[in-house]
């Protein structure tokens, strides 16, 4: 069952991780009162031989988690965290523009909608999932609204093969339980696939079943393969 995350996935090479100093500097830039350009810091890491994947997973993801912990410890407020996450998302976009060749839009691309669970504020994992899905050839739409209205409207008006939802903690679990059937009902695709991810699902396949999802992703880099596996299962079933 894909909810158990497929233990036979090939092992990828270990990432070179950045240190606490790098995470601290990037955190300070993201939380600064005025806009500060973090791109020179990242360019330096790339010039020292780090790959874009290593920067995204080894620096930016830990920075997002660190900022989340600062909020939980009341070391920064909601506005600061929201601004910091928006800056991190913009930085990912800038890095994609810097490091990657533009991809032509393929009319035959599979389409996925990514959104946080209702009430969820930790959204950087979705940004990473969007990056790796797009790199794998998916057409990705993201919705970062705290409620479901935007995602529901998109599902009613457009065709999506799958929806990905993120949840970081237990507080919003009940809302996600109610959200998944609502999203399926709204979808133009009667066989919509639903994947979930985030710390709330780490080691908890029972929660994947509870919310009514088809699979869980615990590493954003695995998202393309897992979603494709779900669609392949659907094709074989036909």
Describe the overall structure.
- InterPro entries: Cobalamin-bd (IPR006158), Cobalamin-bd_sf (IPR036724), Meth_synthase_dom (IPR036594).
- This is Cobalamin-binding protein.
- The chain has 238 residues and is of the alpha/beta class.
- It has two domains: 20-99, Methyltransferase, Methionine Synthase (B12-binding Domains), Chain A, domain 1 (Orthogonal Bundle), CATH 1.10.1240; 107-237, Cobalamin-binding domain (Rossmann fold, 3-Layer(aba) Sandwich).
- 51% of the residues lie in helices and 10% in strands.
- It has nine helices and five strands.
- It has a five-stranded parallel beta sheet, sandwiched between helices.
- Helix 1 (20-31) crosses helix 3 (52-72) and helix 3 (52-72) runs antiparallel to helix 4 (78-99).
- The protein is globular.
- The model is unreliable at 1-8 (pLDDT under 50).
């Amino acid at each position: 069952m894909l909810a158990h995350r497929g233990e036979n996935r090939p092992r990828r090479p270990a990432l070179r991780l950045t240190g606490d100093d790098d995470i601290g500097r990037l955190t300070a830039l993201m939380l600064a009162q005025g806009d500060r350009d973090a791109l020179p810091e990242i360019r330096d890491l790339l010039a020292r031989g780090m790959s874009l994947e290593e920067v995204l997973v080894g620096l930016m993801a830990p920075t997002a988690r660190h900022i989340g912990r600062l909020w939980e410890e009341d070391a920064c407020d909601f506005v600061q965290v929201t601004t910091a996450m928006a800056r991190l998302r913009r930085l990912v976009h800038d890095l994609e523009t810097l490091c990657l060749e533009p991809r032509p839009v393929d009319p035959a691309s599979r389409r996925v909608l990514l959104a946080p669970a209702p009430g969820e504020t930790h959204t950087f994992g979705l940004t990473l999932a969007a990056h790796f899905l797009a790199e794998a050839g998916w057409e990705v739409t993201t919705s970062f609204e705290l409620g479901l209205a935007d995602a529901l409207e998109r599902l009613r008006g457009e065709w999506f093969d799958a929806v990905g939802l993120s949840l970081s903690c237990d507080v919003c679990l009940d809302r996600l339980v109610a959200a998944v059937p609502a999203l399926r009902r709204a979808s133009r695709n009667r066989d919509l696939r639903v994947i979930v991810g985030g710390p709330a699902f780490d080691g908890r396949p029972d929660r994947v079943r509870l919310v009514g999802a088809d699979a869980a992703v615990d590493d954003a880099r695995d998202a393309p393969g897992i979603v494709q596996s779900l669609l392949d299962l659907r094709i074989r079933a036909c």
